[in-house]
């Protein structure tokens, strides 16, 4: 299995683990809200339930964002490898290896650091359409593209 495919699967695993954690957190918050009993201090009870509801809404919104990342990553599963940088490319440069996929930031896989960035990231836009052997200037730094997978 090529490195790009292994990195793709690793990113997919990271996103799926985030989804599972967030789903569990939402279930626990809902359980907490459902089992909270009304005390003699009614206002305190209502405030606690309202705060829990806000947490559930916040977590649900975050879950929707992570699920969107998951869908975007799945769309890249069949991305064609080309000689130019496109979404789904793994680009090795003199300043690091960029996986143009979803915004996960810097990750470590097999003792190597990779930058998982979306195609909308400024550095990704600078790399798009370029080929191996080309140089890209970005924020005062020069990146030489060594390879594209």
Mean pLDDT: 89
Low-confidence segments: none
Succession of helices and strands: HHEEEEHEE
So, CATH architecture of the largest domain?
Up-down Bundle
The tally of helices reads 3
State the distance separating the first and last CA atoms: 12 Å
Question: Radius of gyration from the CA trace?
Answer: 21 Å
Helix content: 40-55%
| Proportion of residues in extended strands | 15-25%
By CATH reckoning, the class of the largest domain would read: Mainly Alpha
What general outline do the C-alpha atoms trace? elongated
Strand order of the largest sheet: 3-4-2-1-6-5
**How many structural units, i.e. domains?**
2
- Report the structural category: alpha+beta
What is the name of the CATH topology of the largest domain? Methane Monooxygenase Hydroxylase, Chain G, domain 1
Overall description:
With 149 residues, this protein is an alpha+beta fold. The chain has 3 helices and 6 strands; from the N terminus they run ααββββαββ. The model has no long low-confidence stretch (mean pLDDT 89). The chain is 49% helix and 23% strand. It has 2 domains: 3-78, Methane Monooxygenase Hydroxylase, Chain G, domain 1, CATH 1.20.58; 90-148, no CATH class. The longest helix has 34 residues, at 42-75.
In short:
With 149 residues, the protein is of the alpha+beta class. The protein is built from 3 helices and 6 strands, in the order ααββββαββ. The chain has a 6-stranded mixed β-sheet.
